[in-house]
Amino acid sequence: MPGPRSSTKSNLPRLSPSRINTFLGCPMKYRFQYVDSIPKLPVEVALRGNFTHRILELLLQRPAQQRTTDAARSAFDQAQKEFLNDDEFRLLALDPDATEAFWEAAREAVRAYYRIEHPQDADIVALEKWVSARLGDFEIGGYIDRLERDKGRLVVSDYKGAVPKRPEYATDNFRQLMLYALMCQVQLEQTPHEVRVYYLGGGRDEYPRNRRVVSREVTPEALDEVRTAARQVFDDLNAATASGEFATKVQKLCDWCDYQRWCPAHGGDPSVAHAESSVAVNIRRKAVGLAPLA
Predict the structure, then answer these.
(1) 23-38 pLDDT per residue, tens
(2) Partners of 194 in the beta sheet?
(3) pTM of the predicted model over 0.90
(4) What is the pLDDT of residues 123-178, one digit of tens each?
(5) How far is it, in rounded angstroms, from Cα 271 to Cα 261?
(6) Which one of 51, 60, 132, 288 is most buried, by most CB atoms within 10 A?
(7) Angle of helix 171-187 relative to helix 220-243, nearest 10 degrees?
(8) Is 7 helix (H, G, I), strand (E, B) or coil?
(9) Are 6 and 14 spatial neighbours (Cβ–Cβ below 8 Å)?
(10) How many CB atoms lie within 10 A of CB 220?
């Protein structure tokens, strides 16, 4: 069945917005990642994004008047201690220069955030808030990065460590956030006014604020569109799981896919993916002093 079941929150199969986006992007990638659970090494840029998220979470969970520059430094230090002890960070196996570059890139992302807004001005409702909604025989669920109010209106927001995307390439970002808006409508009985992406990548003067903060209005039509998309993914995923046939989508993004070497569209063999990837991951785990995967 698509998505894990949770005995504590629901007995229904569950899809997250990220799973929905993955399946729509490429069903075969979904199979590698979520059905076959192919182990993989962490990606530095993704982990750096998680690190930046953690810094901002620690900063913004404070009362507004306590979100000072000293508090931001303290948040950085706490997040750094957490990551230094995290297996995923250790698996990057960064040398000292690369490690310092990792921290500096995160500092620059936080500076980009400060160029977008002052943290004391953020009207935070909740951070990392769990929301879910039942859609017939399944549910969608996940954690909202940031739920806020802007001039009294509810906004669902997300941080992206990447440079700002052109509108035609941002469909997945806004689909994800619109799904969260749908969940808010169902669970909180409040319909957000808009969804918003904060892009934190790029250099100091590379992008103006109106490129870094991009919003879309939440409309009944937009909510209907993502509701329909989620239901279609659920049906298509059940059909693919039953038949064992997961379609491939050859596209430019294939060059950055962790599973390209095993994808049949690129001459690979999915049946050897788990064994071969496990070997590579365990070599790295041994090198950094971690126990091998079972």
Answers:
(1) 999 999 999 999 999 9
(2) 155, 217
(3) yes
(4) 999 999 999 999 999 999 999 999 999 999 999 999 999 999 888 889 999 999 99
(5) 12
(6) 51
(7) 100
(8) coil
(9) yes
(10) 9
